[in-house]
């Protein structure tokens, strides 16, 4: 596939997403929801891979209307310890532009799904921009099991599957109706196809790649949420573990989110 068009998209997509945002905001409809978040993590781990073994900031902006969500997510390296871009302190190493549609199956309100596309751009790194499409199915039960499928359309000829479950205990601490704390926990298992593992790890076999668990405490204060979190991830296959910087990773996070 000719990737030059994806280089041009690196300039076009931010403009298109901004246009979508302004158009939806101008509609002044109650269905339009915007969200801004700023997360700090002590490491940047993606699908079990340690991309930065030290502090990062991850700002994000999204706008949603009528089931569609357009979002921009980014990673800012705070030190020179990035595996993907050494000496990158103070620079962004990744931008993800996502367009998503989410809904529930008609007559089955507890079965939700999402379909979308992600454009990845990696400034200040040697990596080429790429594009993934994805689909997710989630069940709204006592817990929330889900399964997601990701397919790269450019750089990697393969797929990544992730299955997991999450659960939230609401309002474990309540000060008043607008000020309270929840407890959330989750776990996920990742599988890579032979093409995916060849592209990322140089091993042309399909395997269960990674396992992750997390727990968090979201504190809600009106329209604002502060979330403290702890995460653990491990690579399950020895050959894949040998191809990454660290097999096991534990990291902490604190995030601030508001919506309007």
Tell me the layout of helices and strands:
Layout: H1 4-27, E1 33-41, E2 44-46, E3 49-52, E4 56-65, E5 68-77, E6 92-105, E7 108-121, E8 130-139, E9 144-152, E10 159-176, E11 179-192, H2 194-201, E12 207-221, E13 224-235, H3 238-243, E14 248-259
What features would you describe in this structure?
The protein is mainly β. The chain has one domain: Beta Barrel (Porin). Helices cover 15% and strands 59% of the residues. The chain has 3 helices and 14 strands. The protein has helices at 4-27, 194-201, 238-243, and strands spanning 33-41, 44-46, 49-52, 56-65, 68-77, 92-105, 108-121, 130-139, 144-152, 159-176, 179-192, 207-221, 224-235, 248-259. The strands form 2 sheets. It has a 12-stranded antiparallel barrel. The longest helix is centred in the N-terminal third of the chain and has 24 residues, at 4-27. It is globular. It starts with a helix and ends with a strand. Mean pLDDT is 90; it is low at 1-9.
